[in-house]
Specification:
Number of strands: 20
Structural class: alpha/beta
Largest sheet: 8 strands, mixed
Shape: globular
Radius of gyration: 28 Å
Strand content: 5-15%
Oligomer: single chain
Number of helices: 29
């Protein structure tokens, strides 16, 4: 029989169940539980009560009162207030002290985990005597601090290797990867996995068994690894060398956090816990104020702001998308259908003939199968997943759909024809969206009687991997249609940014000058390898020439032509793509582009390209000059997009660039990076390039004005 004792704590309820204190964590006013200073004080009071064995308790259980969330980590707002390493180190030490007090309790404490246990939440669980996890899709465990340019600062770098071994701990800390309960159990991170319906009962039972000595607690070692082979002399040193080589290869040294994690673990894994905690706190303090961490924290908050629903007029509502149709079963259409189905939406995939529809259905089902295997879905869930996707050659069922996404070929008249068919078959409230990267949405809206329900949803390829979707807002679109599109994008796990219906939208527009300058450099005799290497050294995932081959020369040429028609008065243009396409080169898709391909694998630059362009590759300018010529036009165009209202805030511009084409996250996006370099410095560089190479480098008016006033894009 459970009894309840009143608690002064607003976020931590104290209930007593037959000698077991059940602490129910439910932070008021927040959608998730996070470790804030206020919550920490409540934890400290609860620990004092447990230490006194108040209400006769012999053991305790920590539960969450929020569905799908145990503890989501520390309150990241705290990190933005830190200005000195000493402040961040003190924050880490205070968190460590809380975990130490928890680990030293005279009564066992069982972590009953249902939902996410991330960062500080998992570190708290590591300090508990025993860990039971609910077997639900939302239960995930991980230490994602590296994604904010940090390391775990509440004991994670110490307790995790001592609990599951150095190699497994490094895998989690260096990647930020999250484990489902079954994988966590195999590693020894949790002790039991049980159905959610009996989580509380089993956790209370285990707490009693621990108190009675019938079950031994599962705690991290004081020092060293629990894995036998890692205690062999030199074994951990080998693991650390291999991990360091992989980190350097993947990050090119741009991110200090993973290297610092390796350093801390390497120094401390076999030393006393107290010494390791001191080393961890010092490292956390140093990382928290680095430019890289500041930029990554900025991206975190900007991403959250981008997901905020747009305001709606009073009395206007936007329904949730439960049923939809995707028209066009090509690679993009199949990807959109698969991602939608795996996120709970019933999807009809349509094409004009059975052969094309069959190919698209196979592609979509392969993506769903990969998703099901990765999530380890049971058979009944796989059946539900695949049943959400239905093929069709007709528009039957469209009247029940809240949304239809058109994903046919990039041809204006074809799309207009499809939109007329859609309007005739759909309900008057169905939102009609086009997945186009080049065609103005306004031209498509002209083809229908109700243009207010037409928007653009610009997905990026491959759909299943790219996190961004541009929600294109023509002037005729109703707020409810825009809101529905925005909410749909969030519902399928993507980040939406709202952009105006202008040529190139946002992402492709700012990429235009970058790619154009790369082609002009090539035509001046700069080797392809030097151009790409300069971009990658700056932090971009691939160079511009590689990007062209991956996107497809025909797609890039079409996009570039639209941008030239809109903005061609700004300067020189290259005809390199047209000349290569005349030779039958389309890039990776047909195995012939700037690079050679054998069996689908790239084998190096095709020297024939230089002959086709009539240039002889020579010495390259210094890397910093190459980087300025490639990147500064991109930054300048991002500012111009803000100036012209294509985007409505620097946040949107930063998220669009980082999530849309891989602008280096450690630089925080174009606008954040401009602030860090200094607007006057950037203007001076652009003016120098303008003098040397022409007016395509001329600083935009907004950039020049803000530089003259000494302003920044962010306070």
């Amino acid at each position: 029989m459970a009894t309840a004792a009143a608690s002064q704590a607003a976020a931590l309820r104290w209930e007593v169940e037959d000698g077991v204190a059940v602490l129910v964590l439910d932070v008021p006013g927040r959608p998730v539980n996070v470790l804030s200073p206020e919550l920490t004080r409540e934890f400290e009071r609860a620990l004092e009560r447990l230490a006194r064995r108040e209400d006769g308790v012999r053991a305790a259980v920590l539960l969450s009162g929020k569905p799908g969330v145990w503890i989501a980590g520390a309150d990241i707002d705290l990190f933005r207030t830190l200005t000195r390493p000493e402040e961040a180190e003190a924050l880490s030490r205070h968190a460590q002290e809380l975990m130490n007090r928890l680990a030293a309790l005279p009564v066992p404490l069982v972590a009953a985990i249902e939902g996410v246990a991330l960062g500080g939440g998992l570190e708290l669980a590591l300090a508990c005597s025993y860990r039971v996890a609910a077997d639900t899709p939302k239960t995930r465990l991980g230490l994602p601090e590296v994604q904010l340019g940090l390391l775990p600062g509440a004991g994670g770098t110490q307790r995790l290797p001592r609990l599951i071994g150095v190699r497994s701990a490094l895998d989690l800390m260096l990647t930020g990867r999250q484990l489902d309960p079954r994988r966590a159990s195999k590693l020894g991170l949790v002790d039991e996995v049980v159905p959610a319906s009996i989580l509380r009962r089993i956790a209370v039972q285990r707490a009693r068994e621990l108190a009675d000595g019938q079950r031994a607690p599962h705690l991290p070692r004081e020092r060293g690894s629990p894995v036998a082979w890692e205690r062999v002399p030199g074994a951990v040193a080998l693991v650390l060398r291999q991990a360091r080589a992989q980190v350097v290869r993947q990050t090119k040294g741009h991110y200090p956090a993973p290297l610092r994690i390796l350093e801390v673990v390497g120094r401390t894994w076999n030393r006393p816990l107290a010494e390791g905690l001191r080393e961890e706190a010092r490292a956390f303090g140093a990382l928290a104020v680095t430019p890289e961490s500041r930029a990554l924290v900025h991206i975190f908050f900007a991403s959250n702001r981008a997901k905020e629903d747009p305001p709606l007029p009073p009395g206007v509502r936007a329904p949730t998308v439960q049923r939809m149709m995707v028209v066009g079963a090509g690679f993009m259409g199949a990807g959109i259908a698969a991602v939608s189905a795996q996120n709970g939406i019933r999807v009809r995939l349509k094409d004009v003939n059975a052969e094309a529809l069959g190919r698209g259905l196979r592609t979509a089902r392969q993506l769903l199968e990969t998703y099901a295997q990765r999530r380890r879905l049971p058979r009944w869930e796989r059946t539900k997943l695949f049943d959400r996707l239905q093929p069709t050659l007709r528009y039957n069922g469209l009247r029940h759909a809240e949304l239809v996404v058109e994903a046919v070929f990039e041809d204006v008249e074809l799309k207009r024809h499809v939109f007329r068919e859609l309007e005739a078959a759909a309900a008057p409230t169905t939102v009609l969206a086009s997945n186009t990267s080049t065609i103005p949405i306004a031209r498509l809206a002209e083809a229908v009687q109700r243009p207010e329900r037409v928007i653009g949803l610009h997905f990026f390829s491959p759909v299943e991997r790219m996190p961004l979707v541009e929600v294109i807002v023509p002037s005729t679109a109703a707020p409810a249609a825009v809101a529905l599109g925005h909410r749909y994008v969030k519902a399928i796990g993507k980040t939406p940014i709202r952009v105006a219906d202008r040529p190139g939208f946002y992402v492709n527009r700012i990429l235009g000058p970058y790619v154009q300058e790369a082609l002009l450099l090539l035509e001046s005799g700069v080797p392809i390898e030097a151009i790409d290497a300069a971009a990658v050294a700056w932090g971009l995932p691939v160079g511009p020439i590689t990007l062209l081959d991956e996107v497809g020369l025909d797609v890039a040429q079409k996009s570039g032509e639209i941008l030239r028609q809109a903005f061609g008065d700004r300067g020189a243009a290259s005809d390199a793509l047209a000349r290569l396409m005349a030779d039958g080169r389309l890039g990776r898709k047909n195995g012939r582009g700037f690079f050679r391909y054998e069996a689908g694998k790239r084998r190096g630059v095709d020297a024939e390209v230089y002959r086709l362009l009539g240039v002889q590759p020579g010495a390259a300018p210094p890397t910093p000059e190459l980087q300025d010529r490639l990147v500064l036009p991109l930054l300048n165009e991002a500012v111009r997009a803000l100036e012209e209202g294509v985007i409505d805030s620097p946040d949107v511009g930063d998220i669009g660039a980082v999530f849309g084409f891989g602008f280096p996250p450690f630089r925080g996006g174009p606008f954040w990076h401009l602030d860090q370099v200094g607007l006057s410095t950037v203007v001076a560089r652009l003016e120098e390039l303008t003098r040397r190479f022409g007016r395509r480098f001329e600083p935009t008016a907004l950039l020049r004005a803000k530089a003259e006033r000494g302003e920044r894009f962010y306070a």
